[in-house]
C-alpha cells in the first residue's frame, strides 16, 4: 500500500484538493494522510489588523484565534468525512511548526504529495505558482501532483518528453505510483525546433522503455517554442488531463535566471500536473 499526503490550509480549505486526493487514492487503494499545516505564525489576521483593534487588541486576538481553531477543526472534519464515505485508509497530521519545513519533512516518508496550485499558507493570495509552492517543488522529496481550482476526473495522460533524464524519471515515477493509469488514453508529447527532425530524442530507447510502462501510448511531435507549443496543445485537450513532466532539477541559483516549464504551465493551464525530478 502506497502513502499519499495531501496538504491543506485549514483556514482556506480546498475542496478540489480534497476531491483529487480522494479520487487518486481510491485508484490505487493508498493510505491517504491529510497534512493540515497549522503553522503557529499563520492567522487569519495581519499586523495592521492588530493595530486597528486599539486597546482591546488582546481580547480581540483571543476571539479570532478561537474562531481560527474552529475553522481548522471544521476542515479536518470535512476531510475525514470524505475519506470515510470513500472507504479509504486515512490519517490526519496537524503540524504546528513552520508550514514549509513541516511539509518537506513529511514528503521524505511519502510516495506522493498532492497540493493546490495557489496555496500560500498566508492570508494573502498570489498567482500560480506561489512562492510557497515554488519553494516546496524545489526541495520536496517525493513526486507532486499540483491541482487546479476545479476537480475533474482524469481521462487522459500526457507525458512531456524532451530527452532529458528528468522527463524519463517522471514517467518512471508515474508508472510506479499509478500502474493502473496505463489503461487510460496516453500520449507522449515532444516539441522540436524548426531545424530538428520529427523523431523523438533517443527514439528507439524511449519507445522500448514505453512499451514496458505505457504500451498503448501514442506519440505527438510538434515544432516551435516548447512553452508556447505545449500550452497551445494542452488548450485543445480539455480539463480531464493529467500532464506529467520532470522539473526543478536545477540548482536554486540557476532558477533565478531561468524558469522551469512547470512554472509556465502552472501559470497558464488549468489541469493537474504530475511533477517529479531526479536530484
List the helices and strands and how they pair.
Elements: E1 3-8, H1 15-28, E2 31-37, H2 47-52, H3 57-86, E3 89-95, H4 99-108, E4 112-116, H5 131-139, E5 144-147, E6 156-160, H6 165-177, E7 185-192, H7 203-213, E8 218-223, H8 226-235, E9 241-246, H9 252-255, H10 261-268, E10 273-276
Parallel strand pairs: 1-2, 1-4, 2-3, 4-5, 6-7, 6-9, 7-8, 9-10
Antiparallel strand pairs: 5-10
Helix pairs in contact: 1-3
Give a brief rundown of this model:
It is built from ten helices and ten strands. The chain has 279 residues and is an alpha/beta fold. The longest helix is centred in the first third of the chain and has 30 residues, at 57-86.
Which stretches are low in confidence, meaning pLDDT under 50 for 5 or more residues running? Answer: 250-258
What is the global morphology?
elongated
CATH class of the largest domain: Alpha Beta
| Helix-strand sequence | EHEHHEHEHEEHEHEHEHHE
CATH architecture name of the largest domain: 3-Layer(aba) Sandwich
The main β sheet shows up as:
10 strands, mixed
So, the CATH homologous superfamily of the largest domain?
HUPs
Count every beta strand, where a strand is a DSSP E run of 2 or more residues: 10
Q: Care to describe what's here?
A:
With 279 residues, the protein is of the alpha/beta class. It folds into two domains: 3-147, 3-Layer(aba) Sandwich (Rossmann fold), CATH 3.40.50.620; 156-276, 3-Layer(aba) Sandwich (Rossmann fold). Helices cover 41% and strands 21% of the residues. It has ten helices and ten strands. It has helices at 15-28, 47-52, 57-86, 99-108, 131-139, 165-177, 203-213, 226-235, 252-255, 261-268; strands spanning 3-8, 31-37, 89-95, 112-116, 144-147, 156-160, 185-192, 218-223, 241-246, 273-276. Strands 3-2-1-4-5-10-9-6-7-8 form a ten-stranded mixed beta sheet, with helices on both faces. Helix 1 (15-28) runs parallel beside helix 3. The longest helix is centred in the first third of the chain and has 30 residues, at 57-86. The protein is elongated. Mean pLDDT is 90; it is low at 250-258.
